[in-house]
UniProtKB/TrEMBL annotation:
Residues 26-59, 172-199 are annotated as: Disordered. Residues 188-199 have a biased composition (Polar residues). Keywords: Signal. It comes from Streptomyces alkaliterrae. The keyword Transmembrane does not apply. PROSITE patterns: PROKAR_LIPOPROTEIN (PS51257). Residues 1-20 form the signal peptide. InterPro entries: DUF4232. The keyword Signal applies. Residues 58-194 form the DUF4232 domain. This is DUF4232 domain-containing protein.
Length: 199
């Protein structure tokens, strides 16, 4: 007698039918298989990023501050601060932003911040002018510094945060640039005056 050859699919089907018959013969219902545990998905970059690195958003006074990526070239660093009117009423901007460099713990570093980029670089400064920002409108200022180390008597200064305000004495926000505020031994930062943001 010739024994039939069973393929894998036919064997699996025969085994399933046989087990089903056994279950019904002794009066027991078929038991569903145990659910297999699925691993939790890995958090995305946005979920795993520290919350304190995100921009703080619209403030109670109707101001929102954001930083551009840092442009680094030949020891000169520059980034833009954008101030947006996110409130319901217009307000006036005039002069220079206030800025402080903070370490990783939020403590201020011994940094001299000048009105105008002159002590740091020859970058043009538009100079103070009166700007009215209506809801949704923005102004920008540029912050510049150098990563130079030529004074061995001072440890290099490296900041993690940049605290900015519309002007000295105004409510300030703490923002985290995309890289360190690496001042070397210069200990000096300069800002341009506020100017209308490009649309």
């Amino acid at each position: 007698m010739t024994v039939p050859r069973w393929g894998p699919a036919a064997l699996a089907l025969a085994l399933t039918l046989a087990l089903g018959a056994c279950g019904s013969a002794d009066g027991n219902q078929n038991v569903a298989p145990e659910p297999t545990a699925t691993p939790s998905p890995e958090p995305t970059a946005a979920e795993s990023a520290p919350t304190d690195s995100a921009p703080p958003g619209c403030q109670p006074d109707g101001r929102e501050y954001r930083l551009s990526p840092t442009d680094a070239a030949m020891g000169l660093r520059a980034l833009s601060v954008t101030l947006t009117n996110c409130g319901p009423s217009a307000f006036t901007v005039n002069g220079y932003p206030a800025a402080r460099v903070l370490d990783a713990d939020g403590e201020p570093l011994d940094v001299t911040v000048g009105q105008g980029p002159g002590p740091v670089t020859a970058l043009p400064d538009p100079g103070p002018r009166r700007l009215t920002l209506r809801p949704g409108e923005s102004a920008t200022a540029t912050v510049v510094w150098r990563n130079t180390y030529n004074d061995l008597s001072r440890p290099p200064l490296t900041g993690t945060w940049l605290e900015v305000a519309q002007h000295p004495g105004a409510p300030a926000v703490k923002l985290r640039p995309d890289g360190p505020v690496d001042l070397g031994s210069s200990g000096r930062l300069g800002t341009t005056a506020w100017s209308p943001a490009e649309r």
